[in-house]
């Protein structure tokens, strides 16, 4: 609805148009006039009035033909039409109403009847506009809700995909590496080779090779499962990065890919916790006839870390003297023994009960290397 309401009066008699214009304008309506059906139809399309007063008897295009064209036009059919005719033309009134007219007036106009019909038709138009606006609003809300649902479904699908991707990555990569790959969105950049000081823990089972040669495959895999589960809990608790499994051997890194303060202290604390946790399993294994011990070697220093492999398969790996040093110390360790390098011992000496082992001749090293045994973790005083 326009404000004030816009009324189009169509009549080929100028006097009638002037009467309509004066009577309606004095009551606050905006009035537009047209002298024949064609002009009235054109102005209706152009101005979109709220009500049309349409004379039936006109040249060029009569009122009945005009109302038919109005009601066929989807943009105009909601505009109410009051047909104007002489009293004697009842057949025209019937035909005009059948063609789509909404009401009629007879000439000469009776002022109150004119205003009453105009107000009635404008109320209908206002009601129609309200219903149409509400329908549009509902359509917009439905479209918005559909868009929200689609967006929500897409987000849920993306999150599910991300969770599945994370689960796959966590199965085949260290958890910290998987988390960083997902967060960064660019695993290749994250895994570029770099140098960093790290603490490396190497541990394995004593007597495992002989056990694997004589035990059934199911027994071997059961023991490995118990062993890995036990150590995995300690690795996670202490914030270590599981670098790889080597049969019964496990390599754990501290201070990469996430830097962490006190990485050597964490590594030694984890090693002691591992040894104590494996003690319980060792007793159960002994009762089942499996003679298995557990040894650990720990070294600290700068290493090269990054991605190794080829297109179809690659691993995150630590390379250099430090992991080799840890592995050789592990080889020298007796069951339940934790051997550490000089640099590791220097970092944790106030926090542990220890004893010197002396200089060890380790495979791959040109000179004897001092080593220390960690007897017990004391922690900060």
UniProtKB/TrEMBL annotation:
Domain Response regulatory span(s) in chain numbering: 6-122
Source domain of life: Bacteria
Keyword Transcription regulation: no
Keyword set, alphabetical order: Phosphoprotein
Residue numbers of 4-aspartylphosphate PTMs: 55
Residue ranges the record marks as coiled coil: none
Pfam families: Guanylate_cyc (PF00211), Response_reg (PF00072)
Domain Guanylate cyclase: 199-330
Protein name: Response regulator
Taxonomic lineage from the root: Bacteria, Pseudomonadati, Pseudomonadota, Alphaproteobacteria, Hyphomicrobiales
């Amino acid at each position: 609805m326009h404000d004030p309401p816009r009324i189009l009066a169509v009549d080929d008699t100028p006097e009638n148009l002037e009467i309509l214009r004066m009577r309606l304008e004095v009551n606050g309506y905006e009035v537009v006039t047209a002298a024949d059906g064609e002009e009235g139809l054109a102005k209706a399309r152009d101005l979109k009035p709220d009500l049309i007063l349409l004379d039936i008897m006109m040249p060029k295009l009569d009122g009945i033909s005009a109302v038919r064209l109005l009601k066929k036009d989807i943009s105009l059919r909601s505009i109410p039409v009051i047909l104007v005719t002489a009293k004697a033309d009842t057949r025209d009134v019937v035909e005009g109403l059948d063609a789509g007219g909404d009401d009629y007036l007879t000439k000469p106009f009776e002022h109150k009847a004119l205003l009453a019909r105009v107000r009635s038709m404008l109320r209908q138009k206002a009601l129609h506009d309200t219903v149409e606006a509400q329908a549009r609003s509902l359509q917009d809300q439905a479209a918005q809700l559909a868009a929200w649902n689609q967006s929500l479904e897409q987000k849920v699908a993306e999150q599910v995909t991300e969770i599945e991707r994370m689960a796959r990555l966590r199965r085949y990569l260290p958890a910290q590496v998987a988390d960083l790959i997902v967060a960064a969105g660019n695993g290749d950049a994250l895994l570029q080779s770099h140098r960093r000081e790290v603490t490396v823990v190497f541990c394995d089972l004593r007597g495992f090779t002989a056990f694997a040669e004589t035990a059934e495959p199911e027994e071997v895999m059961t023991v490995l499962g118990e062993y890995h589960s036990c150590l995995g809990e300690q690795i996670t608790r202490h914030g270590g990065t599981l670098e790889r499994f080597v049969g019964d051997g496990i390599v754990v890194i501290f201070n990469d890919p996430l830097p962490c303060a006190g990485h050597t202290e964490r590594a030694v604390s984890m090693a002691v916790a591992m040894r104590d946790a494996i003690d319980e399993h060792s007793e159960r294994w002994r009762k089942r006839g499996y003679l298995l011990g557990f040894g650990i070697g720990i070294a600290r220093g700068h290493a090269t870390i990054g991605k190794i492999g080829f297109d179809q398969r690659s691993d995150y790996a630590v390379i250099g003297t430090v992991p080799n040093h840890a592995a050789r110390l592990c080889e020298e360790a007796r069951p339940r023994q934790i051997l550490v390098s000089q640099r590791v011992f220097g970092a944790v000496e106030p926090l542990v009960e220890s004893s010197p082992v002396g200089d060890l001749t380790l495979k791959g090293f040109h000179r004897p290397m001092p080593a220390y045994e960690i007897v017990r973790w004391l922690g900060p005083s």
